[in-house]
Amino acid sequence: MRGRGGRQLGGARYGQLAQQLSRMIEPSVLYLLATGAAGHGYQLAEQANQLGLAETIVEPAAVYRCLRGLEADGCVVSAWDTAGSGPARRVYQLTEAGRQRLAGWVAVINQRAQRLANFVKLCGELGIAPTFFEQ
Fold first, then answer.
1. d(CA 53, CA 133)
2. Of 18, 66, 83, 104, whose CB is crowded by the most CB atoms within 10 A?
3. Between the CA atoms of 49, 119, 112 and 27, what dihedral angle is there, to the nearest 10 degrees?
């Protein structure tokens, strides 16, 4: 995210995370792994949709792409779960680097929420109230 004069607000990592903000898949996956609510891809996609951070349906393929990237970055580790009936499933766990990435997301989302709330307030001062669009 760029400020006036082209400087980046919050540093390079902030900018990278802010660019991904609209999809919200990565912070959803990191959060769900941190809570222990889900551990494998389909479960994570299902839980991410229930979490409701994304504007669209979170597809399992997008979750798996996210998990591959997070694993490559050292934010998650995985192992095959062969226990139980059915095919083996890859189960993911959050690492300390993943907890730090989640904390970065919290900072990005918090800052964006504050800016959006301020914008809504400014529009309210002009007498412009929020309206909902029909879908």
1. 19
2. 66
3. 0
Q: Which amino acid is at 18?
A: A
Q: Hey, where are the domains in the chain? A: 10-125
Q: Which letter does DSSP use for residue 37 in this model?
A: S
pTM comes to 0.77
Q: How many residues does the chain have?
A: 135
Q: What are phi and psi of 55, to 5 degrees?
A: -80, -20
What CATH fold (topology level) applies to the domain 10-125? Answer: Arc Repressor Mutant, subunit A (1.10.10)
Q: Which amino acid is at 3?
A: G
Q: What 8-state DSSP symbol labels residue 6?
A: G
- Phi, psi (rounded to 5 degrees) for 49: -65, -35
CB 51 within 8 A of CB 28: yes
pLDDT along the chain (135 residues), means of 10: 41 59 83 89 91 83 94 95 85 96 95 93 92 60
Which string of DSSP letters, residue by residue, matches 54-108? Answer: SSS---HHHHHHHHHHHHHTTSEEEEEE--SSSS-EEEEEE-HHHHHHHHHHHHH
